[in-house]
Design a protein that fits this description.
It is a single chain. This protein is an alpha+beta fold. It has two domains: 29 residues; 191 residues, 3-Layer(aba) Sandwich (Glutaredoxin), CATH 3.40.30. The chain contains six helices and ten strands. The strands form three sheets. A six-stranded mixed beta sheet has the order 1-10-9-4-5-6, sandwiched between helices. It has a two-stranded antiparallel sheet with strand order 2-3. Helix 4 links the parallel strand 5 and strand 6. Helix 3 packs across helix 6.
Length: 225
């Protein structure tokens, strides 16, 4: 009876050790290289930041939030369709980066979510048509100015819709930041502009693999699934 209990205990301890070793194996233990990331205007927070839920509207005109994309990394980009320069350039850079990322890091899926800062003009239909020029897989979100601001401020992005001119045209002044959200839905790093494809790729490479536990990825996104 004693031997049986001892055997059971040894099996339990062995199982626990295997679990710990597996957790260590699937969690990259090294720290991010803060100095290298700073060279590409990327800053990782000492601890992941919990995001308060904000419900917006997706490209299919349905309620949606960043929580819908948990189980994979999310790159959040802010901008608007009538932006004359920075916004389309940033999306083009993201498109270039994602093509390379999917080939070189298939085990670390990333979802691109573009959040408009001009909801009056950027309807779900217009957003969908516009984003498809870059990548049909890009997600888009819109909503009221108040709700968009509630999300943006959590991701260290500020914006202001300027007064329209005599013809009704206006611009949206905004910070040029992108956010990296981990598979648990936490804000972990900010990527500041100006954005170039090579620098953005370096930023993602320096943040995502080191800070990913494969246990954080849902079965749908697990490699070899």
């Amino acid at each position: 009876m004693m031997k049986s209990r001892l055997s059971t205990l040894l099996i339990a301890v062995s199982a626990a050790l295997v679990g710990l070793l597996a957790g260590w194996y699937f969690t990259v233990g090294k720290q991010v290289d803060a100095q290298a990331l700073a060279k590409v205007h990327t800053y990782v927070y000492p601890a992941p930041r919990t995001l308060q839920p904000v419900t917006l509207t997706n490209l299919d005109n349905q309620p949606s939030s960043l929580a819908d994309y948990q189980g994979q990394w999310v790159l959040v980009n802010f901008g608007y369709l009538s932006c004359p320069d920075i916004c389309p350039t940033n999306l083009a850079a993201i498109n270039t980066v994602m093509k390379r990322w999917k080939e070189e890091f298939p085990a670390y899926p990333v979802k691109v979510v573009h959040v408009t800062l001009d909801p009056a003009r950027d309807t779900p239909e217009r957003l969908k048509e516009y984003l498809q020029y870059f990548d049909p897989d890009f997600a888009g979100l819109t909503g009221s100015v108040e709700k968009i601001r509630a999300l943006a401020v959590q991701l260290n992005t500020v914006f202001e819709i300027e007064e329209p001119d005599e013809e009704g045209n206006y611009i949206v002044s905004h910070s040029d930041n992108m956010a990296l959200v981990n598979p648990a839905g936490e804000f972990v790093a900010i990527v500041k502009g100006p954005h170039k494809a090579e620098a953005l790729y370096t930023a993602m490479e320096g943040v995502i693999p080191p800070l990913t536990s494969l246990y954080d990825l849902t079965a749908e996104y697990m490699p070899c699934h």
